Amino acid sequence: MKKLHTFTLADRAEAGLLKELLEREGVACLIRNEQLFAALGEIPFLECFPELWVVDDEVWPRAKALLENWFKKEEAAAWRCAGCGEDLEGQFGSCWRCGTSRNA
Ligand SMILES: [Zn+2]
User: What confidence tens digit (pLDDT) does each residue in 36-74 have?
Assistant: First the structure.
């Protein structure tokens, strides 16, 4: 077993999502520390970060590549409107402010 990624409290919701994504690619993985959130406040803060672990060391490099790809895609998803310069999140296909389309 090898650790793939440590999540911050802010992106801990992503942990389950990434686990699903990896499992869809045939990478067996598990999340550690997740259950400790129930005890938050009773254990040292730093030990509460959820960690994504890959079960089989041999597929770790592939899992890492998938993860990096996913993060890259997520970053690229945010865009700036060419019409008014508004910063927009990936889910918007056009600017909510001036209506300019993403591909304009
Ligand atoms: Zn705009």
Answer: 555 555 555 555 678 899 999 999 999 999 998 888 777
Boundaries of every domain in the chain: 2-77
Pair 98, 36: CB distance under 8 Å:
no
pTM over 0.70: no
Token code pair at residue 41: 């406040």
Going from the Cα of 80 to the center of ligand 1, the distance in angstroms, rounded, reads 8
Kindly give the distance from the C-alpha atom of residue 14 to the centroid of ligand 1, in angstroms, as a whole number: 29
How far from 92 is each of 69, 71, 76, 84, 96, CA to CA, in Å? Answer: 21, 18, 13, 15, 8
The amino acid at 48: C
Give me ligand 1 centre to Cα 88, in Å. Answer: 9
77 alpha carbon – ligand 1 mean position (Å): 16
Interval between CA 74 and ligand 1 midpoint (Å): 21
Q: Report the interhelical angle of 12-24 vs 60-77 (nearest 10°).
A: 120
